[in-house]
């Protein structure tokens, strides 16, 4: 497989063509951004950590019956994935109050929700990724009603599998964001990444935050937190 022309550069990843039009080459960058790009930094090792963690998580959830775009890791910072057309929705699942939910609704951070909930946000940096209702999704023709049901079902299934997996590692899965895309046959596949950039992960014993909130809220060293997650998942530490 050959790495071809750069197709797209986002805040955290670059996407390249390959010599197979059904496959793209993803490179994870060392950049960290928060608050819709207002806070920025370059953090050496972050690209490797997110690539390793995402590759491990996509492989583990594949074994448990959840298909994704992931094909294989090709280097410390790169992976091959199936080419999909991204559905312009950020699908968020929450188990415990935190982040924008805690702020918007005045629910104390750390309060467990009576059941997991799914929220959708418009993937639009200019608008600051606003929260959407299902009516918004319908009238703006962002996704069909059937597809929205599939996204909810898949997101809750991922939540079950990931919550169990992290619990075994002594980590509470507080919330996370997923993205989905359609492959050339129109099948909806889980896409993008699952990493401490896109999940809130708290140590079960201490409630220590092991995710991007460390960067957002200046709580300590981001790579230490991400290395902790990678080590618990059975991956290699950057420092070895
Ligand atoms: O900020 P908020 O509480 O809405 O975030 C919910 C979850 O979605 C968090 O785990 C956060 O890391 C993730 N998220 C993300 N990308 C965004 C917005 C939120 O990965 N653009």
Summarize the structure in words.
The structure is a single chain. This protein is an alpha+beta fold and 240 residues long. It is built from six helices and 14 strands. It has helices spanning 46-63, 99-105, 134-139, 145-168, 213-216, 222-232, and strands at 3-9, 13-18, 23-28, 31-34, 39-42, 70-75, 78-82, 85-86, 89-96, 112-122, 131-132, 171-182, 188-191, 199-203. The strands form three sheets. Strands 8, 9, 10, 11, 12, 13 and 14 form a seven-stranded antiparallel beta sheet that branches. Strand 4 and strand 5 form a beta hairpin. The longest helix is centred in the middle third of the chain and has 24 residues, at 145-168. The protein starts with a strand and ends in an 8-residue tail after the last helix. 34% of the residues are buried. Pathway: Purine metabolism; IMP biosynthesis via de novo pathway; 5-amino-1-(5-phospho-D-ribosyl)imidazole-4-carboxamide from 5-amino-1-(5-phospho-D-ribosyl)imidazole-4-carboxylate: step 1/2. Keywords: ATP-binding, Ligase, Nucleotide-binding, Purine biosynthesis. It holds the Pfam family SAICAR_synt. One of its GO terms (molecular function) is ATP binding.
Based on CA inertia axes, which overall geometry fits?
globular
Cofactors, ions, other ligands: cytidine-5'-monophosphate
Number of helices: 6
Number of strands: 14
CATH class of the largest domain: Alpha Beta
Straight-line distance between termini: 29 Å
Task: Give the amount of beta strand, in percent.
Answer: 25-35%
Give the biggest sheet: 7 strands, antiparallel
Q: Architecture of the largest domain in CATH?
A: 2-Layer Sandwich
Radius of gyration: 17 Å
Mean residue pLDDT: 96
- Relative helix content: 25-40%
The H-level CATH homologous superfamily of the largest domain, spelled out, is: ATP-grasp fold, B domain
Low-confidence regions? none
Return the CATH topology of the largest domain: D-amino Acid Aminotransferase, Chain A, domain 1
Number of domains: 2
Broad structural category: alpha+beta
Give, in order, the helices and strands. Answer: EEEEEHEEEEHEEHHEEEHH
């Amino acid at each position: 497989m050959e790495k071809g022309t750069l197709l797209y550069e986002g805040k955290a990843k670059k996407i390249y063509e390959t010599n197979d039009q059904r496959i793209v080459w993803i490179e994870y960058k060392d950049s960290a951004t928060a608050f819709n790009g207002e806070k920025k930094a370059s953090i050496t090792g972050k690209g490797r950590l997110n690539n390793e963690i995402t590759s491990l998580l996509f492989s583990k959830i594949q074994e448990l019956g959840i298909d994704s775009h992931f094909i294989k890791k090709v280097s410390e910072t790169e992976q091959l994935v199936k080419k999909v057309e991204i559905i312009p929705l950020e699908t968020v699942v929450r188990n415990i109050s935190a982040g924008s939910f805690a702020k918007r609704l005045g629910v104390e951070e750390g309060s467990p929700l009576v059941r997991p909930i799914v929220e959708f946000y418009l993937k639009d940096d200019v608008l600051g990724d606003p929260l959407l209702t299902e009516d918004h999704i319908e009238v703006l023709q962002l996704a069909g009603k059937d597809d929205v049901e599939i996204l909810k079902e898949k997101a809750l299934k991922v939540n079950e599998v990931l919550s169990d997996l992290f619990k075994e590692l002594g980590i509470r899965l507080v919330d996370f964001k997923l993205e989905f895309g359609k492959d050339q046959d129109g099948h909806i596949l889980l896409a993008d990444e699952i990493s401490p950039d896109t999940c809130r992960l708290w140590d079960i014993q201490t409630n220590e935050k092991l995710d991007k909130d460390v960067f957002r809220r200046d709580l300590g060293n981001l790579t230490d937190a991400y290395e902790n997650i990678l080590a618990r998942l059975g991956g290699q530490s950057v420092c070895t």
